[in-house]
């Protein structure tokens, strides 16, 4: 089954502030993955091409990366042929888009796993990651928070 799953978020910050967050992936100070809710990303050799790892039951290796721009992970699991990718794109001097893309073909039992479990978990996982990035740049005083909450 062909799968193309895309998540996008526009953040009102320059790419110079968002791009470097990619390089915290799979570190103790991961600024993208919501590790308070989800399994940590683990990579055997850090963020470099060829490094193997994953998160939870999902296995992959880094196929390509460019400093402050993108990291592409090739799936390394039976029945999942393709990749997932985090990409950071400048939309303006104070607007940056963060994108997560899965582009893969599933086969056999992997199709059922995607349809009935992984897809829903993945969507929540990525939205939580994007929330973490966006919330990093939200600045509200305690008084503003109290006013907001009524």
Keywords for this entry:
single chain; 150 residues; alpha+beta; Alpha-D-Glucose-1,6-Bisphosphate, Chain A, domain 4; 7-stranded antiparallel sheet; globular
Number of helices: 3
The protein's oligomeric status is single chain
Order of helices and strands: EHEEEEEEHH
CATH architecture grouping = 2-Layer Sandwich
CATH topological fold name: Alpha-D-Glucose-1,6-Bisphosphate, Chain A, domain 4
CATH secondary-structure class: Alpha Beta
Helix content: 25-40%
Describe the biggest sheet?
A: 7 strands, antiparallel
Measured on Cα atoms, how large is the radius of gyration? 16 Å
- Strands of the largest sheet, in order across it? 1-7-6-5-4-3-2
Strand content: 35-45%
Unreliable segments of 5+ consecutive residues = none
Q: Please tell me what the overall shape is.
A: globular
* Full CATH superfamily name: START domain
What's the domain count? Answer: 1
List strands and helices in order, with pairings.
Elements: E1 2-11, H1 15-18, E2 42-43, E3 52-55, E4 58-66, E5 70-75, E6 80-92, E7 95-106, H2 109-136, H3 142-148
Antiparallel strand pairs: 1-7, 2-3, 3-4, 4-5, 5-6, 6-7
Textual characterization of the structure:
The protein is an alpha+beta fold. The chain has a single domain, classed as Alpha-D-Glucose-1,6-Bisphosphate, Chain A, domain 4, CATH 3.30.530.20. Helix content is 26%, strand content 37%. The protein contains 3 helices and 7 strands. Strands 1-7-6-5-4-3-2 form a 7-stranded antiparallel β-sheet, with helices on one face. The longest helix has 28 residues, at 109-136. It is globular. The protein starts with a strand and ends with a helix.
């Amino acid at each position: 089954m062909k799968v193309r799953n895309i998540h996008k978020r526009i953040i009102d910050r320059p790419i110079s502030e968002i791009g470097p967050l990619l390089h915290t992936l799979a570190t103790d100070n991961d600024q993208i993955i919501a590790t308070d809710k989800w399994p940590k990303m683990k990579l055997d050799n850090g963020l470099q091409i060829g490094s193997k790892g994953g998160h939870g039951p999902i296995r992959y290796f880094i196929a390509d990366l460019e400093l402050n721009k993108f990291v592409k992970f090739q799936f390394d699991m039976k029945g999942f042929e393709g990749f997932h990718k985090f990409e950071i794109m400048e939309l303006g001097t104070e607007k940056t888009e963060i994108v997560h893309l899965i582009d893969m073909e599933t086969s056999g039992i992997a199709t059922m796993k995607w349809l009935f479990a992984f897809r829903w978990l993945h969507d929540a996982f990525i939205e939580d990651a994007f929330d973490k990035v966006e919330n990093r740049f939200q600045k509200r005083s305690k008084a503003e928070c109290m006013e907001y909450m009524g």
